[in-house]
Write the structure tokens for this entry.
Amino acid sequence: MTQVIIASQLDEDYNDVIRQRLAAHHPQAQVIGVPVGVPSDLPPQANILLLRPINVRGYSAPDTPPPGWPYGAEWVHLVSSGIDFYPQWLFSGPPVTTSRGSAADNLAEFALAAIFAASKHLPDIWVKNAQWSFTPLRPLKGTTLGILGFGAIGERLAHKALALGINVVALRQSAAPFGVEGVQAAKDIHDLFARADHLVLAAPLTEATRHIVDRDVLGSAKPGLHLINIARGGLVDQEALVEALDNGQVGLASLDVTEPEPLPDGHPLYTHPRVRLSPHTSAISTHSRHEIADAFLANLERYVAGLELANLANG
């Protein structure tokens, strides 16, 4: 059997879930906790590395790997879906896989919660005294949801939205069919923004997609658009977004991500009356330990069997 010695940057409660699951099928496997950040001085016997995001909270990893990298690692698994939180040199060594899809339902549910909150005026309609007034609430049925990017998150979101009677129009980089009956294809990003009442950004951040939502694209938006970003802050030109919020082209922005994270104190997005800002929490759930373990352990079976790994980010 292939040796399984895992160096993990996860918190111990996450590691314990993996240990418990390994005990049934790989009782000789070990999980060794290692410090977060740029991996260095890994246990020499470790052949698998579980890695948390590195380039976060304003920190940037050095442009070159630490001496001795990749040590004994034969496989690196990222606990995130995206790869933009990691230095480029990480992808020039052993196979690197991601946890793509592990939090797709969490993210889709968060986007829908933002849509419900906007349409039903939550929490503004909660009353605190006997002075009641009635606010007409907007129905979701018959509205149009735009989705930019159609990977696992977009697919789950489309299924849920269609079940609610919401029209779904999407745009993806690939020409592959969406695979979800009822999803319409936008002609381009301007068409997508022009048709949507609510628009969810679910695309990866790459050089090609950085600031893809710029002043020109926002100018195409259906007046009063509700923009929801659950992907990466770098997809949006934030100065252009503030302008579009000020002039009403964008009626509301529900942002779980920004650039940078966190935003500096005093940034206008904190206090803008048309912004709802959350601290990059949409993917995190009370089940995250098990969701991350599921994604990793499914790939571990492939590794042990000598099969090609799923969700490869390189190679």
The chain has two domains: 5-102+285-305, 104-277.
